[in-house]
Structures are given as structure tokens and as C-alpha cells.
């Protein structure tokens, strides 16, 4: 009986506990939990092995005692001992079962806590996902907004700069269309957009203007077209800055950038006019042969030179503005031609001065800009011929040239031919007056004292002034130059001044800006008049939106051809396909 009781108790308990363990869900929450479960399983297996071993040992001993016992007394005592051992084994099994039950309860609590952790982790992950999704949406919205801004600016630059043919016309409003269109976008940015967006518009506008100017190459009239537009744009935005003081900082940073572009274009214009027009006139004239040159006297040579350079001035002015060159009124700023001609004539002044003061007419040029004249026939007087009569002839040529420039809408200015004027006055002045420093500073302030001595040494008497230069005059000038060591050397030939640029004043451009935007007094009060509707900018947006429709509408189709309906249908299809969003974005700005 003890054998059956003992053998049935432990397996029953084990099966019950195993079943309970099998019914528990298996969950893994990481490497740490797996290690704990494995450790618990190993402990359980060890305890079960120990219990089984104890039960088997006790049972075997009981069986041996029952079969091999020698006496009944011994059987009773041994039976009692076996019973005690069996009870001890049963108590041990019960203790083990209690320990296992407690361990499983601990495991269940841990699993429940782990389940709670998983639930809270899922909620945290969902919250993080929502936050990431929100950030992604905001990022996409910001990116779309930036792309729309870029499209709007591209559309504005396209219709304002890239789609414009830079030709001169009599209408200032039409000629300054680029300035008007760009100003509408920039003023809108100053009114409603942030500082960063205004800076972006300004930067892209400057880049577009530079690109448009570069595309002109050395075409002087087109470069003048863009220079006139940039100056007008700067004046419009500057006027707006004064009317919108709260936004003036943006325009003040835009203005220096535009002035740098103006200087760059102005320098290109000066250099192009110089090398295209004036430099060729300094070479040997093709229409004057050697025989004709020998027959030409001083008066004929002077007349030829006057005519030659008058033609050069007309060609230069025609390059700057073809419309005015043909005798018509032009919408570009007239001050630009005057500014360019001032720089070019200043160079002509230096080159002629250096060529006339050569020791002989056969002396070769020394500098491609300051001293490039190869043939003395282009000079108003012969090189090296310094006399009272040559001074008078030089003065006559200067007067003719200045009158020619005044007739071509370039005002006569004392700054023109300043060196030649001083040289002619010096040749015609009584030489003893040159001993007075105040007289020299008044008559020839640009000619150094060593060079004055050189001119007087080469002075030759003629019928107008038969006397030589008094020796006392030369000695006085020599003594004065020795006392001042700075004047001991002769700085010759003179160098032409580098190109400089001073932006034209508002007074010089006010008239044309008034033609672009309306009454000048109203322009000063509110520069937003430029933005008002009524200009052709909006209508030309439609042309760019459907360029093929614009072309087909201008093509006359014969009614008898029978293709009118097909052409119209194809036109509508193309118009629907070609429609661009960037022009709609630009309309939104221009309609505000």
C-alpha cells in the first residue's frame, strides 16, 4: 500500500503543475526575461530530480525490507521507520509544490507587469509616430510654400527679364517694362513678406539682371537698355523706401546691390564704345592716301580731323541709342549717353594730348589706351608743332567738337577736352605770365611744371607770335622746379583715368520715372502707383501662359480652307496643356 501511495503522489503533483505551466502563455520581452525563465526552469528540473530520487530510494528500501525481513518484530519496527520516511518524503514533496506555486505566482505578476509595460510602450510608440507624422506634414507644407515662392519669383523674372526684347523705343513706359514689373514684385515683398523673403527676391532679381546683361555681349544699345531699366528700378524702390519707412531697411540693402550692377554695366558700355568706335578712328584713315596727305595743308588737316571725330561722336551716340541716332525721341534715360561720352571723350583728350606733345610725328605709341594714336592725320594739329597758331587751331577744333556734341543732345561741358583746352591756352598765353604761380594754376592746372618747361622749350615762333620764349621765364621755371624735388621729373605720357561711376541724381531720372509711373509729385508721395492695374503686364501673362494661341491668333487663315474649326480646337487643347501654375501664383501677387 505504501508503494502505490508513494508512486502515485509525486507524478500526480508533477502532472498538475506541468499542466498549469503549459496553460500559461509564453511571452518574451527581451533577453533578460528569457534568461530568468531559463534559470527558473533549470531550478525546477533540479528539484524534481531530487524529489524523484528520494522517492525511488525510499520505495526500494521499503520493498527490500518487506521481502527480506527475518522476523515480525523487525518488520513492525522497520514498517514504522518506512512510514516515517514516507511521511518525510510527502512533506518534502508538499514543500516543493508550495515553492513552485509561489514561483509561478511571482512569474504571473511579472508577466502581468510586462504586459502593462508593452501596453504603455505601444501608446508611446503611437504618440511618437503621430508626432513624426505631424513634423513630416509641416515639413512638406514648408517645402511647398518655398517651392511656390520660387515659382512665383521665376515667373516674375521670366516675364520681366527673360521674355523681354531689349530694344529702344519712343515710349518710356514700354522701354522700362522690366523695371516696372520687377518693382511690383519687390514692393509687394516689402509690404507683406518677411525680411528673409525680401532678401531672396532682391538676390534673385540682381542675379537675373546680371544674366540678362551678360546675354547682350558687347551690344552697346542693349546694355544701355538694361542700364536704364536698373537705374529706374533703383529709383522706384528707393522712393518706396521713403514712403514705407518701416520697410526701408530692405530697400536700402537692395540699392547698393543695384548700384554695383549699374557700375559693372556702365564700365562694359564705356569699354565697348571705346574699342568699337574711338580706337578705329585713331588708326590710319582709309579714305586719305599719301598723295592727298601731301596736298593737305595745316588747315585741311585740321578740318579733316574735326570732321573725322565729329563722325566718331555721332557713331558712338548711335551705338548708345539707335533711336536718338536716327533723330527720334527715345524713352531711355538721356543722361546715360552723356555719362558714357564724358568717359570716352576724357580718354580722347588724353590720347590727343600725349600724341601732340610727342617729339615728332613719327614717334610710336606707348600705351593702347592712353597713347594709341598711330597716324598724326587724326590730330587737329601736327604732333610736335607747338606755336601760337597751332594753339588757336586747336581751340577751334575743340569748339567744333563741343557744338557737335551739344547738337546730339549731349550738353556742352567745360570738362570736355580739359587737357587740350589747357594746352591751347598755354600756347596762346604771353609766356612771361607763366612765371606767376596763380596764373599757371588758373590757366593750366593739370599740366605739371616740368611738362610746361618742355612745352616752352619746343615752342616755335610764327606769324601770330614771332618772339621766342624769354630766357628769364625758362630760368625762373627751372629754379622753381629744382626747389621742389617732387617736380623734378616729367610725368609723361599722361595716363587715362580708370572708369568711375556716380549714379545719376534723381532729378536726371525723375522725368522718365514720371512717364513710367505717372505724375512725379504723386510718385514721390506713393511709389505704389507703379503697381496699379492698367498696364499690359497682366495681359502679357496670358500670352506667356498660352504662347501658341497668341501666335495662331495673329495668323490669318482663309475661310475657304475649312480648317478653322480644327485649328481652334487644337488651339484650345494646347492652351489647356500649356497653362502654368507659376503665372497663376504671379497673378495672385499682382492682383493684390
TrEMBL record:
Keywords: Coiled coil. GO terms for cellular component: nuclear pore. Residues 33-49, 73-87, 94-113 have a biased composition (Basic and acidic residues). Residues 1-16, 58-72 have a biased composition (Polar residues). Residues 199-484 form the Dilute domain. InterPro entries: Dilute_dom, Nup186/Nup192/Nup205. Residues 1-130 are annotated as: Disordered. Residues 130-157 form a coiled coil. This is Dilute domain-containing protein. It comes from Brassica oleracea var. oleracea. The lineage of its organism: Eukaryota, Viridiplantae, Streptophyta, Embryophyta, Tracheophyta.
